[in-house]
Amino acid sequence: MIVLNGTSSAGKSTLAQLLQDRFAAAGEPWIVVGVDDLFVKLPREWITIGAHVGVHGDDGIVFERVDGDIRRRIGPVGTRVLAAYRGMVAALARSGVNVIVDEVLLSEEDWHGWQAELAEFAVRWVRVDCALEVVETRERERGDRLVGLARSQYDIVHRHPAYDARIDTATAGPEAAAAALDAALSW
To answer: What is the CATH number of the domain that holds 167?
Structure first.
């Protein structure tokens, strides 16, 4: 299992797809899983982000501006969804499926949840770095992100994990980053 951890717009999804392609070319099937895979299945009424205010957002997940920063708040439904996400990743690994996780680790509680769920597996944690000005530019250019989210995550996302590898997506192109990471993670 490989967990790619970094801010929004750091290049994790692109890196995950390129790694999956590299592994497939070598005859190894890997599944890419990210937290958004479950949260997009949650009814919008349990999500508050940007101008959208879900009527049950406080029970689900809220991204709100507080003193200029965007903060994440998780309610009881959101807590269960995050636990299910980690459990789903573990269930895939338990069944023998190779998994690449696209993660944005925002709290110590999330880190402990991952540690408990993945304790039995060989997991490679990868720090996906990208200069703040680059992630902010990507965020604006994408047009599908809450502007300011990457900045708000920037000083938080790498606080807890112990990493096995580090990749800087601002200095290496996507293909070069995937190749370097593949080499660094040789099993």
So the answer is: 3.40.50.300
Please give the angle made by the CA atoms of 154, 176 and 1, to the nearest 5 degrees: 65
Instruction: Please enumerate in sequence order all residues whose Cβ is within 8 A of that of 5, keeping only pairs 6 or more positions apart, or say none.
Output: 12, 103, 104, 105, 125, 126, 127, 128, 157, 158, 161, 163
Residue 76 in domain:
no
- Residue-wise pLDDT for 67-114, tens only, equals 888 899 999 999 999 999 999 999 999 999 999 999 999 999 999 999
In a domain, 56, yes or no: no
Residue 36: active-site member: yes
**What is the total count of domains within the chain?**
1
Spatial separation of the C-alpha atoms in residues 154 and 186, rounded to whole Å:
28
Q: How far apart are CA 19 and CA 176, in angstroms?
A: 11
Residue 114: is it exposed, middle or buried by C-beta count within 10 angstroms (0-12/13-18/19+)? buried
**Domain span at 13:** 2-34+85-184
pTM beyond cutoff 0.85 = yes
Q: Reduced to 3 states, what is the DSSP secondary structure of residue 114?
A: helix
Whole-number Å distance between alpha carbons of 147 and 135? 10
158 in a domain, yes or no?
yes
Would 167 be classed as within a structural domain? yes
Compute the half-sphere exposure of residue 82: CA atoms within 13 Å on the CB side of its CA.
22
User: Which of the residues 21, 36, 37, 155 is marked catalytic?
Assistant: 36
